[in-house]
Amino acid sequence: MSDQPILQIRDLCKDFKVRSAKLFEGPKQLHALSHVSLDIQKGETLGVIGESGCGKSTLGRCVVGLHSVTSGDIIYKGKNLKELHTKEERRNRHKNIQIVFQDPYSSLNPRMTCGQLIEEGLIVHNLEPDKKKRRERVFAMMQKVGLDVQHIERFPHEFSGGQRQRINVARALILNPEIIVCDEPVSALDVSIQAQVLNLFRSIQKEFNLTYIFISHDLSVIKHVSDRIAIMYLGTVVELCAADKIYHNPLHPYTKALLSAIPPDSPFETREQIKLEGDIPSPIGDMKGCPLAGRCPYATARCHEERPQLREVEEGHQVACFLMEQGKQN
Amino acid sequence: MSEEILKVENLKTYFFTASGVAKAVDGVSYTLKKGEILGIVGESGSGKSVSASSVIRLLPKTGRVVDGTILFEGKDMRKISDKELRKIRGSDISVIFQDPMTSLDPVFKVGSQMVELIRTHNKVSKEEARKIAVENLALVGIPDPERRMNAYPHELSGGMCQRVMIAMAISCHPKFMIADEPTTALDVTVQAQVLGLLKELQEKTDTAIMLITHNLGIVWKMCDTVMVMYAGKTVEFADMKELYKNPLHPYTWGLLDSIPKLSDTEKAELKAIPGTPPDLRLTGKCCNFYNRCPYATDICREQVPELVEVAPGHKVACHHQNGVETLVRGKEAASDE
């Protein structure tokens, strides 16, 4: 862990402008991400989990460069991604940080064949000018991700969901990236197929020494694939810890609530029940205090006023909650 | 508790499409007793939803129930007239659909939709119906129900909409409720709220619920009995705890093993089921699972396995597991590697 992280996210903020409901009012700010800081080491899998609207996909898209950031820095191998001036540098970034999207049905161009889809990246980045060699690489990649090479001329609609997701993985992998952002890659798949795709992700990580940012809303999937897990709520990271710790020693009230909300592994399991009342508040407008304050059963007056910062409570376990601070002082 | 409210036997619902006959449901049998929750699990396309909507004839035009019996409180649901069926739908049997945002009419207020439903089935005045609607909204935990009556569906969040759907479903005191993936579109914390509510209401009113889901965790939390479906067929039907402790069908094993568990300490490779589900136009000549089953033998390729009761209340459809258990879970798979 002492090496320099491959990707550093520093104080990242992303706001979206949304039209106001009233006629003559100016646009409002939607704070999709506020002050997110994360370090990602080479070869590890960072799991990002949260409910819909918590900014986990926005985070992934910012890292890949599909969203411009409002403020903050993303530093890849010591190079700030804001300061990429030449075309070469920008190309390099896009080649090395790839993304696999959630929906295998809409993320593939229906008019391109499987082979064209996979080789597209090679053409765009001009990595293999020779047509024959390019095909060979496509063949090799298809075998690697478990696709039948006979299907190279097939169109996406002729594949099942799991196979399409394999095409997506092949598309990302053929550029030899260092980081792959996996944005809910298995949530559209059935459990038996989900397990196949998760196994594929694991085996290619070992083979290519990849770094994953794995985004999902399914905690058991996240725990299975990740080394470390970041729990997000309303645009902020509320807890960051090793994957096993989240189950054995969750500290933030939101993490505890999330854990107790997840359906059990067996009929005989009993878990501590922490219920959060109500729904997630809207991220539009200015926020004051802890984002969870309105729903948290332990909220104090301070929680409504001040925003807690992510602090290290134990070795490698960071929490953004005032309760933990007080616990430490006592 | 032992009163049977719904008995379905050998139900077959086929879809007659241009490219052939798709056997969406091809031999499904189960019984549901009063006050019980039956869970139906299976992958997408395994016929879970179709087998439920066959009961109340909510099938698209291409679909038809071709065989089998459906007895609801002793009445043959296949024979009753449309008029009788309309009376049963919404009052004796109600449905909660998967996507709450699209199953409510977007151009009517939540309140008027509820009043309409209540007045269709009960002879009450508008004011009374409104009162019942407000009571039901309060019952499902919607804050400020009086005001929410005047809200349009788009003004409510997903969890709220699903509560409204549940409030509508219980407003005529149904004896039997079909919940078709009621929480799939919702976040986990909201899902826990909605499931808790369903269970609470079910205990209070003693309604029988058919809960369709693909999440086994929900089954462990909610259900009394479970039916596992694969490619249109019932492959296993058992008491929930029995199914967890002693699953018999290889597909059930595969399903149980392929889910990553939160309590796992080591990160072993998941035991995935190889291959993909079969084309429903081609099923019905052999065991549908044989090409994905690590234990398959010749007989699986030649004969359709019957659903056999191997223990009281535990039925299984597998050539090797009927009566005498000849397979050992995980044994074949291990020797494969």
CATH topology of chain A: Rossmann fold
> What order do the helices and strands of chain A follow?
EEEHEEHEHHHEHEHEEHHHEEH
Taking the alpha carbons of the first and last residues of chain B, their distance comes to: 47 Å
**How many structural domains does the protein architecture of chain A include?**
1
The CATH class name of the largest domain in chain B reads Alpha Beta
Q: From the alpha carbons, calculate the radius of gyration of chain B and give it in angstroms.
A: 21 Å
Describe this structure in words.
The complex is a heterodimer of chains A (330) and B (337). Chain A has 330 residues and is α/β, with parallel strands linked by helices. Chain A is built from eleven helices and twelve strands. Chain A has helices at residues 56-64, 87-96, 114-124, 131-144, 161-173, 191-208, 219-225, 243-248, 253-261, 301-305, 322-329, and strands at residues 7-18, 28-40, 45-49, 71-76, 79-80, 97-100, 179-183, 211-216, 228-233, 236-242, 311-314, 317-319. In chain A, strands 6-7-8-3-9-10-12-11 form an eight-stranded mixed beta sheet, sandwiched between helices. In chain A, strands 2-1-4-5 form a four-stranded antiparallel beta sheet, covered by helices on one side. Chain B has 13 helices and twelve strands. Chain B has two domains: 1-92 and 175-262, Rossmann fold; 101-173, no CATH class. In chain B, helix 8 links the parallel strand 7 (176-180) and strand 8 (208-213). Chain B has helices at residues 48-55, 82-88, 100-103, 110-121, 126-139, 145-148, 158-170, 188-205, 216-222, 240-245, 250-257, 298-302, 331-336, and strands at 4-17, 20-33, 37-41, 63-72, 75-76, 93-96, 176-180, 208-213, 225-230, 233-239, 308-311, 314-316. Chain B has an eight-stranded mixed beta sheet, sandwiched between helices. Chain B has a four-stranded antiparallel beta sheet with strand order 2-1-4-5. Chain A binds chain B through residues 51-52, 160, 162-163, 190-196, 198-199, 202, 217, 219-221, 223-224, 244, 247, 257-269, 275-276, 279-280, and chain B through 43-44, 157, 159-160, 187-193, 195, 214-218, 220-221, 240-241, 244, 254-255, 258-265, 267, 269-274, 276.
